[in-house]
Amino acid sequence: IVSALGTSAYAAHAIAINAEGISYMPGFAFAVSATTMVGQALGAGRPDVAERAGWQSWKMSATVMGLMGAVLFFFPAMLMRLYVDDPEIIAMGASVLRIMACAQIPMSTAYVFMGALRGAGDTKAVLYVAMASVWLVRFSLAGLFVNVLGWGLQGAWYAMALDWVVRGSVSMARFAGGRWKEMSV
């Protein structure tokens, strides 16, 4: 979808993904810790500790990724300039980094709660949520926003951000529902 927008848009997209990649590394780390802590607590017969570990991991992850989102939002052009000096590419990349800045907390929510659910053995739910969100939200909306509504590169990134909102919301609701506490691993 993005490659059809032209060379400059594709360059801005690729560079913005690279720049944004730094922001979600803490989310991965907290997801791994949530997976481990939830699994260990359930293995010890302590679902209360597992639940607390999931929520604490999320709070820490959301805080750190929220700060990373602030950097993406307030300094996107500076980040783009680390990679390229073309003003058109910098402007396009900065605009999409601002979009993804707003998705940092939903992204951290998805990472942590999907990790916590994996640690609890609820792996099918994680798979189904991720697949459905990528195909039904990210790809479908990217096609709509870019090809039908003509929103260009920003449209593709709005679709990516909405994908994270859906994944984060559904995985948080699944974790809060607590059915994972009754699964046998």
Characterization of the model:
With 185 residues, the protein is an all-alpha fold. The protein has one domain (3-182). The chain contains 8 helices and no strands. It has helices at 7-21, 25-43, 47-74, 76-81, 87-101, 104-119, 123-148, 152-177. α3 (47-74) runs antiparallel to α6. The longest helix has 28 residues, at 47-74. The chain is elongated, with a radius of gyration of 18 Å. It starts with 6 loop residues before the first helix and ends in an 8-residue tail after the last helix. The model has no long low-confidence stretch (mean pLDDT 96).
- The coarse overall form would be elongated
User: What structural category characterises the helix and strand content?
Assistant: mainly alpha
Q: For the terminal residues, how far apart are their CA atoms?
A: 40 Å
- What Rg, in angstroms, do the CA atoms define? 18 Å
Spans with pLDDT under 50 lasting ≥5 residues?
none
Report the biggest beta sheet as strand number plus sense, adding barrel if it closes.
none
By DSSP (H or I, 4+ residues per run), the number of helices equals 8
The averaged pLDDT comes out at 96
**N to C succession of SSEs:** HHHHHHHH
Question: What count of structural domains?
Answer: 1
Number of strands: 0
> What is the beta-strand fraction?
under 5%
Helix coverage percent of residues?
over 70%
